[in-house]
Design a protein that fits this description.
191 residues; alpha/beta; five-stranded mixed β-sheet; PGRP_domain_met/bac
């Protein structure tokens, strides 16, 4: 009986730490396991929003296919350990696991060990983010705070604020600038 309670307690701890927050796991989207992992010191206080500059997706099958293609490109062509983003957001309103809550991603050079990179599928210079995708990210961030992955006073920034890029695209950038955790002045973050 004691063994049962110990196993149950361990299960509860793992669920609390690795809580899925409604995220589509790598296993569910048929992703590859990472070649290597580095653990992220948590809680984190920085979220970087990006876009893929690919076509958008609106179905589970098309979004999972794009995520698999991104991971294959990152691992096979760029020699990365895994897909670079922490999470990838589909136009279908689903959040796809990338490096996840626990591992260091490879999304923004110089900021990977102190942030989560959340990447929207699409080109948001042209596309408008779906309400479902925006709601999914907001729910993910709330869950991240509740589970202790993000600090309560975390900051959201656009990729373009930290490096020379157009990411996350004009339309998505305009949207995130209205979020309550938006950080306009990133001078305190600059490396």
């Amino acid at each position: 009986m004691k063994l049962f309670f110990n196993i149950f307690a361990l299960f509860c701890i793992l669920v609390a730490v690795n809580g899925d927050c409604g995220v589509v796991s790598k296993q569910q989207w048929d992703g590859l396991n990472p070649v290597h992992v580095e653990y992220l010191a948590r809680p984190v206080d920085l979220v970087i929003i990006q876009h893929t500059v690919t076509r958008t997706c609106s179905t589970d099958a098309s979004c999972a296919e794009i995520v698999r293609n991104i991971q294959e490109n990152h691992m096979d062509n760029l020699n990365m350990w895994d897909i670079g983003s922490s999470f990838i957001i589909g136009g279908n309103g689903k959040v796809y696991e990338g490096a996840g809550w626990l591992h260091v991603g490879a999304h923004t050079y110089g900021y990977n060990r102190k942030s989560y990179g959340i990447t929207f599928i699409g080109n948001y210079n042209n596309d408008t983010p779906t309400q479902a995708s925006l709601d999914a990210v907001k729910a993910l961030l709330r869950c991240g705070v509740e589970r202790g992955h993000l600090t309560a006073n975390y900051h959201v920034v656009g990729h373009r604020q930290l490096i020379a890029t157009q990411s996350p695209g004009r339309k998505l950038y305009n949207e995130i600038r209205r979020w309550p955790n938006w950080l306009e002045d990133v001078s305190s973050l600059k490396n």
